[in-house]
Amino acid sequence: LLSKDAAIREVHHRVKNNLQTISSLLSLQARRVDDRAARVALREAERRVRSIALVHEILSRDPTEQVPFAEIVVSLVQMAEDSVVSAQPIVISTSGDLGDVTADVATPLAVTVAELLQNAVEHGFEPHAADDGSGGADGTGAARDGASARVGHVVVTMANTGTELTVAVQDDGVGLPEGFDIEKSTSLGLSIVRDLVESQLEGDIGMVSLPESEGGGTRVLISVPVRAPR
Question: Model pTM greater than 0.85?
Answer without folding.
Answer: no
